[in-house]
């Protein structure tokens, strides 16, 4: 599958070319990729450096990428709209706020200034701002509780399945 992220104004933000679907239900999609091409909105391309397991949910306003590195699993979490999937790709709106989670489960909040800039520029409704911040809180609870993709063996288990199928 291809993964496409957009901005609130509908502008295409980024495309991941090839991810293998490992699980797909109405509410959850788990995908995997390794050294896949990524195309930025300005046409620039780059290749991911390590295997990654991607977790998307249709009810939560975030997605989670677990990257398998030599020193452990690093997570990159996007505060985003729930995903939609059509014949073309899995799609979501990226709302700039990000959380980087390290193998020891410490984390950094990223891009709060970019979020504020886009919130004003694209006139995010107050209710959307509230939804995004509530989901940020929910995501951080998942990190602290080792829930979902942060659970021990979640990423490794899905990576083993990916290796079996690829």
From TrEMBL:
One of its GO terms (molecular function) is hydrolase activity. Pfam families: DUF402. The keyword Metal-binding applies. InterPro entries: DUF402 (IPR007295), FomD-like_sf (IPR035930), Ntdp-like (IPR050212), SA1684 (IPR016882). Residues 9-147 form the DUF402 domain. Keywords: Hydrolase, Magnesium, Metal-binding. NCBIfam families: PRK13662.1 (NF010183). This is Protein associated with RNAse G/E. It comes from Oceanobacillus polygoni.
